[in-house]
Amino acid sequence: MFKIVAILGITLFQLLVVAPSVASDRKCTPEIAWSDVPSEIRAHLVEAVDGEISPQGGPFNSTDIIIDSTPRARFFGACSESDGWAVAIERGGIGYHMQVFTFAGETLTDKWTAFVPSGGFTPSALVKPAER
């Protein structure tokens, strides 16, 4: 019994003390706006989605029917770290989804597609589905 309590105590200590210090340079909150993403990365994303990207909560055509010039992509959320960014973009069309793009500096390092979380943006939305 003492061994189990000791292991739980060590694990709790690691979660409370060690984990926050590892992630202290990570800014990943719903408050990061589209305009906070560096302009070079925004330009790369506009090119990647082949059109305008609406800001979070902005007008967005989530269907596959194009009636007007409403953007078919919308900023969903982002995280920044000391030398990189992870940005999620909602995409309309057949199979409403989001694409996540990761950057080291201004260089695209990875991208993947995932379902849009029903509860809105959380940092876990930027984790590859296979790694959850």
Describe the structure.
Residues 1-24 have low confidence and may be disordered. 24% of the residues lie in helices and 25% in strands. It is of the alpha+beta class and 132 residues long. β3 and β4 (107-114) form a beta hairpin. It has one domain. The two termini are 31 Å apart. The protein has helices at 2-22, 39-49; strands spanning 73-81, 84-91, 97-104, 107-114. Strands 1-2-3-4 form a four-stranded antiparallel sheet, covered by helices on one side.
User: Helix-strand pattern, N to C?
Assistant: HHEEEE
Q: How many beta-strand elements?
A: 4
The unreliable regions are: 1-24
Rg from alpha-carbon coordinates = 18 Å
| Biggest beta sheet attributes | 4 strands, antiparallel
**How big a fraction of the residues is strand?**
25-35%
Q: Helical stretch count? A: 2
Short characterization:
The protein is an alpha+beta fold. It has two helices and four strands.
Name a few traits of the molecule:
globular; 132 residues; 4-stranded antiparallel β-sheet; 24% helix; disordered N terminus; 25% strand; 4 strands; alpha+beta
List the helices and strands and how they pair.
Elements: H1 2-22, H2 39-49, E1 73-81, E2 84-91, E3 97-104, E4 107-114
Antiparallel strand pairs: 1-2, 2-3, 3-4
